[in-house]
Amino acid sequence: AQSVTQLDSHVSVSEGTPVLLRCNYSSSYSPSLFWYVQHPNKGLQLLLKYTSAATLVKGINGFEAEFKKSETSFHLTKPSAHMSDAAEYFCVVSLAYNQGGKLIFGQGTELSVKP
Amino acid sequence: DGGITQSPKYLFRKEGQNVTLSCEQNLNHDAMYWYRQDPGQGLRLIYYSQIVNDFQKGDIAEGYSVSREKKESFPLTVTSAQKNPTAFYLCASRFSAGGGIQYFGAGTRLSVL
Questions:
Q1: DSSP string, B26-83
Q2: CA A110, B112, B20: angle at the middle one, nearest 5?
Q3: Optimal mutation site among A97, A99, A104, A110, interface B, most CBs of chain B within 10 A
């Protein structure tokens, strides 16, 4: 069975400092992994997507994630946090379409950014 | 504008009442999904549909019902059998191809009076 675990429920950083949000996955085959962001009372927006073309994936708003098969990790990073980055972030794995194309979500990490 | 429209944004349910949440997409996506979000629990799948007139239960389907009479519409009914309906409900859709990306609506917040 596929699953994702987000290692921190809450991360707090100062504006201008690096961001690291951690995610480990479990999958019996090469997974389709995503990071989504959700601002309060809003829908989810795709930040980036890994589908085996490259291990370092660049997303929107300066975010990146690195797929490490040996560590079964897909951590999200950003060199310099901005106040507008404060939101909830979800690490997600997608099942194949012939399995319903369903998304399996991590529990989420709330990112706070201090001025 | 292309996208996924959920309505209403806020909804209140009285005891014993059924309520219906609307989800419409004009992206020509094949599949549509309903998720429930509770604080600190991520998103959980309620129902999904990959083709018109067909749908499948997700992980927490009890107390909910859906229909898919048109490709662009996937309404969710929260029935009186759902004893704890207070949550944020999100609808999503995707193409059958496209690498698994689902696109989300803005959500409906359901509360019990």
A1: -S--SEEEEEEE-TTS-EEEEEEEEETTEEEE-TT-TTEEE--SBTTB--EEE-TT-S
A2: 95
A3: A97
Report the pLDDT averaged over residues B58-86. Answer: 95
CA dist., res. A95 & res. B12, Å (int): 33
Q: Please report the pLDDT score of residue B85 as a whole number.
A: 93
Rounded Cα–Cα distance for residues B7 and B23 (Å)? 7
Contacts of B31 in chain A (CB under 8 A): 97, 101
Task: Give A-chain residues touching B104 at CB under 8 angstroms.
Answer: 36, 43-45
Q: Which residues contact A100 (CB under 8 A, 6 or more apart)?
A: B48, B50, B56
- The tokens for A23 are 């995610």
Q: Which of B35, B28, B113, B108 is nearest to B71 (CA)?
A: B28
pLDDT by position in tens, chain A (length 115): 789 999 999 999 999 999 999 999 998 777 899 999 999 888 999 999 997 778 899 999 999 999 999 999 999 999 999 999 999 999 999 988 888 899 999 999 999 999 9
Could you list the beta-strand ranges (E) of chain A: 3-6, 10-14, 19-21, 23-26, 32-38, 44-50, 56-58, 64-68, 73-78, 87-94, 103-105, 109-114
For chain B, what's the residue count?
113
